[in-house]
Sequence to fold (395 residues):
Amino acid sequence: MTPVYNSHILKFRDTCLERDRSRLVETISSCRGHRVIARIRQSGRSVDLECPPRELPERIAKAGFDRARPFDLEIVTREPSALAALHPNGAAREEFHDRNDFNVLQWNGERGTGEAVAGSLRNTPMFFRENGMNLDLVDLYRGQTLFLVLNGPSLKGFDWARLKQPGIVTMGINNGAHLFRPNFWTCVDDPSRFMASIWRDPAILKIVPMAHFQKPIWDRERDAFATERVRDFPSVVGYRRNEQFEPSRWLVEDTVNWGNHSKRGGGRSVMLAALRLAHLLGFRTVYLLGCDFHMDESKHYWFPEQRSAGAISNNTNSYALMSGFFRELQPSFLEAGFKILNCNPESRLDVFPFADLNEALATAAIDATGNTEGMYIDRYREKKRRAAERSRKPG
Fold:
């Protein structure tokens, strides 16, 4: 058994102690996790301060830093999903929770892997509430069509009203849902990366990893973690992930695969999770929008967001790995009647057939132009009356 931890890191440049002290203490105090560390860098020197809110100015000076000069700061939260928080004085508040039970709920088999399920997935819990109760959402949209919005720059200037027609069901990922409100939404990264408007919107069914239930979102106005955690928001459903990509069982695993852990070759993506969730919900035709599979210095997303050279390189590597994953999955998709079609003819993902978006929308849309006049009648009584009239006729 190998102990593991994850970390959430916030980076600040040109921090001025006299100017930013109150916001700095508030930001650090709002961090929730097993440990919180303030990593300070100035003039080539670096020091880590444990329990940083306590007597922060004095400790910075004692560490040999010039309080009058700006410094760079990293706030490192170890195990941000741990059920612990800091008091304003910097002391950790002890919480008495047995996390063994919580972990058993998340993993049926070995952590990070999926287990093939015999028979119908309806016999295996796949979706959960924050208290561990499961919801049976499998096949709720049996045989229906889904439009999956993947946030590529090709969607700049797109007329989103086209996706608001009767019969059109949409799923969004990450921060694209801040500007276009889908029916479903999912993510895999830390909840603090995503806009509060998404979490607060009860009209969006948010399907997220179960570990997110315990994590806070980000309050942009305060530049600090919010007091609310994901479990506090409406229309949130959890699922369990695995990090061992096995194409032969990908559609029938008891957890949702989102690629491979770095020790297994890497290549994790929210797109994989979104497609598995779509299949679990019963959708059998998925049209991809904004599936560009390309990023460079001038093309990031259809919404505002900067990307460093390192991030662009990581995305490019991820696209290559994902293309390989989809080539392995496509035979299973076709055998299961799970059709994926790409509505971006310029996309660099050529595994799935390309489709015309206008034709796709016309096929999925429902005609809602009919007149309601005359619908409120007792059709069974009318049927009996006509039957009685026929029986009275001679012959």
In short: The chain has two domains: 7-93, 100-364. The helical segments are 17-29, 56-62, 99-106, 196-200, 270-281, 309-335, 357-364, 379-392. The chain has eight helices and 19 strands.
